[in-house]
Amino acid sequence: MLSALSNILKITELRQKVVFTLAMFLVFRAGTHIPVPGVDVSVIEQMFTSGNLFGLLDLFSGGALSKFSIFAMSITPYINASIIMQLITIVVPTFEQWSKEGEEGRKKLTQITRYGTVLLGFIQAIGMAIGLKAAIINPGVASTLLIALTLTAGTTFLMWLGEQITEKGIGNGISLIIFAGIVSRLPDGLYMLYQYLTAGTINIFNVLLFAIIALAMIVLVIAITQGQRRIPVQYAKRVVGRKTYGGHSTHIPLKVNQAGVIPIIFASSVLMFPVTIAQFVDISWVKTVAGWFAWGTPLQTFLYALLIIFFTYFYTAVTLNISDMAENMKKYGGFIPGLRPGKPTADYLDRVMTRITLAGSIFLAGIAILPNFIAAVTNIPGLNFGGTALLIVVGVALDTMKQIEAIVLMRHYQGFMK
C-alpha cells in the first residue's frame, strides 16, 4: 500500500489528476450545504426520518436531499438520460450509426444526453417542488419555478463537474461523484453506531455481527463484480501477400454481472411509482395500495427481487448483441474450438450467457434486499448499509484502481531500450 502511494506521488501527471479529483470532491461537498432558496429545511428533515426509501435516496446524494441543497437531485437525471439513450440507440438507426462512427459519433450522442439531462432534471425538479410544497415558505408558481430552476442548475453543474473529472482527473467522473456522495455518509453512520452503543440501544455483539456481515458482503461483491466466464477463441492463420495474420488464441470474457447496477435502478423506479402517485392523490384506496408497496414490506421485497431478475436479463439482452459478436468472430476468422462459426456459435454463447446471467441476477436481487435482513439480524435501527450503495462503491473503487494502475504501469514501462 505504501509503495503504491509513493508511486502516485512520484508521477507528476498522476499526482495532478488525484489532486484535481479531490478538489472537485471538495466543490461537490460544499455544494451539498448550500440550501435552495424559499424552502424550510427543518420540515424536509422530518420527512426523511419517516421512511427508509428517502434515507436510501439521501445516501446516494451524499446528504444533499435531506438538506434540500442545490445538489438535492444529485446526478440521477444524467443517469436516467444515459440509460434512455442506450436503449434508444438500439432502436433509432441514426443513433446506432453515430455509435459506430468513433469519437465524433460519441460526441453527438453525449450532446443529446446533456440536453436530455436538463429536460429530465427540470421535470423531476418540478415534481419535487410540488411534492414537497409543505416545506415551501411562500407557496406559489414563482416559488415552484425558482426551486425547479435551482435544482436543475445544480444537476447541470454536477454533470459538468463529472465531465471535468473524467477529462482531467481519474476514472469516470459521474461514478466518482456518486462514490463520493455515498462514502461521505460513512462517518455519520459510524457516529450513529457509537451513539446507539453508548446509549445501550445495541451492544458490542451487535456491532461485531454487523462488521462480520459487512466484510462478507464486500468480499462477495468483489468476487461477483470481477467474475467472468472466459470462452476460448481460436483465430485461423491467414496469409495476405507476404504477411501472416491470425493463428493465435484468445478468449471472450463474459461477465457474471453484465448489467451492473442498472437493474436495481430500474426496479426501484418502477416500485416507487405507486408511492409517488399516492403523494399527489388524496384517495383512501390509493393510499392503501401504496402502503402495500412501502419499503420493506413482504410484497415490495418479493416484487423488488423479481423485477431485478427480469431487468437484468432485459438490460443484458439489450446491451450485449450475441449475434453481432458471433458474426464478427466469423468475419475475422475466429471460432470456438468444437463449434462451427455463425449460428451454432451464437446459440452456444446465448446459452452460456443465459446461465451466468441467472447467477448474476440472483446475486443482484439478494444484495438489494439484504439490508432488510441485516437490520433484522443485527437489531440496529435505521441501517442503510448494503445493497446498491455497496455495489456502486466497490465497482467504482475497482475501476479507479485499474485506471491508476494503468497509468503507473505506463509510466514505469521502459521497453527493451533504456
UniProtKB/TrEMBL annotation:
Query: Is Membrane given among the entry's keywords?
Result: yes
A GO cellular component term found in this entry reads: plasma membrane
Q: Tell where it localizes.
A: Cell membrane; Membrane
Task: Provide the alphabetized UniProt keywords.
Answer: Cell membrane, Membrane, Protein transport, Translocation, Transmembrane, Transmembrane helix, Transport
The record, for PROSITE patterns, names: SECY_1, SECY_2
Subunit structure, per the record? Component of the Sec protein translocase complex. Heterotrimer consisting of SecY, SecE and SecG subunits. The heterotrimers can form oligomers, although 1 heterotrimer is thought to be able to translocate proteins. Interacts with the ribosome. Interacts with SecDF, and other proteins may be involved. Interacts with SecA.
Protein name in the entry: Protein translocase subunit SecY
**Organism listed in the record:** Pelosinus propionicus DSM 13327
